[in-house]
Amino acid sequence: MSDEANDASTAPDTDPQERRRAAFHSAKRVLARHSAQHRIGEQLAHLSAHAGSVYDLDAGADIYGDGVVAELERRTARLLGKEAAVFFPTGTMAQQIALRCWAARTGNNTVALHPRAHPELHERNAFHEVSGLRTVHPTGEPRLPNADEVRDFEEPFGTLMLELPLREAGFVLPSWEELTEVVEAARERDAVVHFDGARLWECTGHFERPLEEIAALADTVYVSFYKSLEGMSGAVLAGPATLVDEARTWRHRYGGTLFQQYPAALSALIGLEQALPRLPEYVAHAKVVAQALEEGFREAGTPWFRVHPEVPHTHQFQVWLPYDADALTEAAVRQAEESGVALFQRWFTAPEGPPGVAVTEVTVASQGLEWSAEDVREALAGFLGRIGWLLAAGC
């Protein structure tokens, strides 16, 4: 590392989050750039440049869910092969309402899901506190439950909720056969099936099935527009028309029927038009990136590392290293600041395993398609060099 790099420092009063944002925003080479990393002007310019290709901008703005919002609902329902769909400002709201509707219809407010599913980790116990739902866990393994675990679970549940892919376990998916078997096992127990499909869009390659066929396994499906599709915000719940109508009523009660939502709806339509067709490319190239990382770690003699899954199931996967999360994040930020290359971004203390292990999520999107395997290995060498310098400096 150069003397200039060694001397790189940040004023003590610099906000760490703002520093990270600035570093990754200014980086010239990234594997993916999330919409939240763009400046407001960039977001508005993108929306202005592309909205006219997906919707008639001479039409009136939406009011309480009509117009462009209703059009987004129609297009999404058609993509998923469902009778109807309803737009929500957040997936948290969409899923709570879906599951409370099913609880009323089945007469059972118990939801079977994975303990590392999004509602259990990131929603402040909202299922219970807001919607009166109770959760149980057919398995604690870092994968979705299998058919036997669902079939033999010791107490009744009204709904089986499956997160596809299971993000916290490494964006992992079952095989198509395993998925169909677990759905059948739930049906044998007279339970309905709901897919948390925030990232369902990129699952088609792994399952080798179109979206409509995957979604057909579930009674209801939730999908997000701001993750893989790079939209501003928003989600859709799709399923039977009668349940969707009921969900609209609950959306109003929850305060989710906003006066106007055309920016979010237009950005979602742009995502369906531009990002969705490219997701198979991203998934394929994520496999190239993951393999290059494996090779780079081995070439560098890294004493322990984990790329998980070794062959990614989607365009996202995890990397684990035996170092302090803050030190790894600092190395990533310095690499972006000093070289304009952002291989990794933020690291977190691993929720499983021994102390001192950190994990990060790697996403490969359009920007990552420009990276060759050699580019990945070169960037990794630069990152590991900064880790060595930080550790030697006692940082």
UniProtKB/TrEMBL annotation:
<dbReference type="InterPro" id="IPR015421">
    <property type="entry name" value="PyrdxlP-dep_Trfase_major"/>
</dbReference>
<dbReference type="GO" id="GO:0006567">
    <property type="term" value="P:L-threonine catabolic process"/>
</dbReference>
<dbReference type="InterPro" id="IPR015424">
    <property type="entry name" value="PyrdxlP-dep_Trfase"/>
</dbReference>
<dbReference type="Pfam" id="PF01212">
    <property type="entry name" value="Beta_elim_lyase"/>
</dbReference>
<feature type="domain" description="Aromatic amino acid beta-eliminating lyase/threonine aldolase">
    <location>
        <begin position="59"/>
        <end position="295"/>
    </location>
</feature>
<dbReference type="InterPro" id="IPR001597">
    <property type="entry name" value="ArAA_b-elim_lyase/Thr_aldolase"/>
</dbReference>
<keyword id="KW-0663">Pyridoxal phosphate</keyword>
<dbReference type="GO" id="GO:0005829">
    <property type="term" value="C:cytosol"/>
</dbReference>
<dbReference type="InterPro" id="IPR015422">
    <property type="entry name" value="PyrdxlP-dep_Trfase_small"/>
</dbReference>
<feature type="region of interest" description="Disordered">
    <location>
        <begin position="1"/>
        <end position="22"/>
    </location>
</feature>
<dbReference type="GO" id="GO:0006545">
    <property type="term" value="P:glycine biosynthetic process"/>
</dbReference>
<comment type="similarity">
    <text>Belongs to the threonine aldolase family.</text>
</comment>
<protein>
    <submittedName>
        <fullName>Threonine aldolase</fullName>
    </submittedName>
</protein>
<dbReference type="GO" id="GO:0008732">
    <property type="term" value="F:L-allo-threonine aldolase activity"/>
</dbReference>
